Amino acid sequence: MPGKRVRRHFSQLSEFERGLIIKMKTAGWSTRRVAGQLDRSECAVRNCWEQRTREGTHALKTGSGATKKTTRRDERRIVRQALVDPTVTRSTYKQT
């Protein structure tokens, strides 16, 4: 269909990959070379580097999404229960 946009799914860079990009670019590597080495798009590498030069950081920004409803302690308890009995449903977790 002409005129219809193609939706592409991009994976975000991990903190490790962001660090590698910064180190490689600081060492003088080209954007194309860094992208090829990390198997990422040149656009992703360029955006990471521009954010670094603009803001002085390569860390991800905190989003404005919903706040967490569970504490770290609750999450550990849920994982522990799931390992003990993987057939338990979500509603059973809520009851305990």
UniProtKB/TrEMBL annotation:
Cited InterPro entries: Homeodomain-like_sf (IPR009057)
Record-linked Gene3D superfamilies: Homeodomain-like (1.10.10.60)
Principal cellular location given in the protein's record: nucleus
Subcellular localization: Nucleus
UniProt GO cellular component terms: nucleus
Protein name, as recorded: Transposase IS30-like HTH domain-containing protein
Protein source organism: Trichonephila clavipes
